[in-house]
Design a protein that fits this description.
With 170 residues, the chain is an alpha/beta fold. It is built from three helices and eight strands; from the N terminus they run αβββαβαββββ. The structure holds copper (II) ion.
């Protein structure tokens, strides 16, 4: 009786070992497959006009120059990588028409709190995202305007001095 139990136990642990070994191999295969998939996805993103820009708690955009092709669809995704709330360190991406005075627009925007710091009925904006706080992501799609340079900014009060850049349409 004792012997039988021992044998059964031995068989059982062998089976467990085999099962575990098999599982581990499967996991590894899956992992490398996922890695490959990620790489191809990011390459595809580079080829299309999809721009990812991030803002932080130090009032900084990680990109101060964006290049796109005229007439193409552009998708700008804004990520807030900080820890501060939207009311303290809110960020947005606002693309201005050519010839719009940056400081003048920012002053108008600063008092438009109820409209996420976008002046109501403004004719100065080509496209803008919503206002986001820590950990949030937002995006906006638009057709790239005629070739030239365009200013973009974060219109949260006081941010434009640091959070601005150029969209260059080629
Ligand atoms: Cu901001």
């Amino acid at each position: 009786m004792k012997t039988a139990k021992y044998v059964l136990g031995a068989i059982f642990s062998c089976a467990v070992l085999i099962a575990c070994g098999g599982k581990e191999e499967k996991k590894k295969e899956g992992f490398s497959y996922e890695n490959k998939k990620d790489t191809s996805t990011s390459t595809a993103t580079k080829d299309s006009n999809e721009i990812v820009i991030s803002g932080n708690d130090l009032m900084q955009f990680d990109k101060t120059e964006i290049r796109v092709k005229a007439g193409q669809k552009v998708k700008v995704t804004l990520r807030h990588k900080g820890k501060l709330d939207v009311n303290v360190m809110g960020h947005n991406f606002v693309l201005l028409k050519q010839g719009v005075d940056l400081a003048g627009f920012a002053a108008e925007a600063a008092v438009a709190k109820d409209n996420e710091y976008i002046p109501e009925k403004t004719k100065d904006v080509i496209a803008h995202t919503s206002l986001i706080g820590a950990g949030q992501t937002t995006s906006v799609e638009f057709v790239a305007p005629a070739a030239g340079e365009y200013d973009y900014l974060c219109s949260f009060p006081g941010h434009y001095a640091m959070m601005k850049g150029k969209l260059i349409v080629e």
